[in-house]
Amino acid sequence: MACCNKKRPVLVGAVILIVIAYITSLLDTPSPKTAQVSSEKQTPSNQVNGVGTLEAKEVITISPKNASTVGTVYADEGDHVAKGARLAQMELSDLAGVQLQNSAMVEKSRSQLASQKAAIEDLSAKKTLADTTLSRYKNLSKGGFVTQAELDTAIASAKSANAALVSAQEALKQSQHEIQRAVGSLDSVNATIRDYSLRSPIDGIILSREAEAGSTIGAGTPVFKIANPKSVWVRAYIDERQSAGLRVGQKAIVTLRSTGEKQYHGI
User: Fold this and answer.
1) C-alpha dihedral over 59, 64, 65, 68, to 10 degrees?
2) pTM of the full predicted structure?
3) Which terminus of the chain, N or C, has fewer Cβ atoms within 10 Å?
4) Helix (H) or strand (E) holding 195
5) Helix axes 148-195, 95-142, angle to 10 degrees
6) What dotted CATH number matches 2-90+201-266?
7) What are the C-alpha distances in Å from 220 to residues 77, 81, 195?
8) What confidence category does residue 262 fall into, taking pLDDT thresholds of 50, 70 and 90?
């Protein structure tokens, strides 16, 4: 039948297992590498051959969370980057000033808090002394050794010392709430600033850089594309007439045009 003479491609994937570390170095450009795949057979006449490309199954897009302008670019196409490496810094506009302002507010609040704690210690000591004096005067008044005026003065001093301590303690609580708000604001600004720093989420290879320094980028617009080298595989096309010789788990030999006759073994 005429249909049997047609050459329809059959898709076969061969994952590079043994030499994955070396092959990943060949992904320095975003274009797929041309690969030739053949099955490992006893004789060359029984080999199944196909031509395809070396690709990465996992490609991650790096984008800013907020619209901004690209400030400094630290990486380019073909670079091998470690997890957490900074790839680019977006311009912070007025965020840097807000950060400094909030940092100064936190430091000022902490200084005031320390002063208030020291004042409370002093007021607490004064209250203890006033309470002790009042207790002694009360005992002395029973024997007529102090006048009523002296006792009244001791009572007033104790009440005043207690009121001053309570007031300082309330002010301290208010200051603690204020410093919590200041620290929260600073943490929020710092988190936003971290979002303006584009970093690699994996150990990978940059396939493409989509923006230049000075470019205005919208939120979610890709700036980098990074390939996971652990996901490298070969996509090969085999003539249908040879597909009968293929089996799941069959070993394969891969050669790349960029490396000549060097062979890589896959499965």
Assistant:
1) -160
2) 0.54
3) N
4) helix 148-195
5) 160
6) 2.40.50.100
7) 20, 21, 12
8) confident
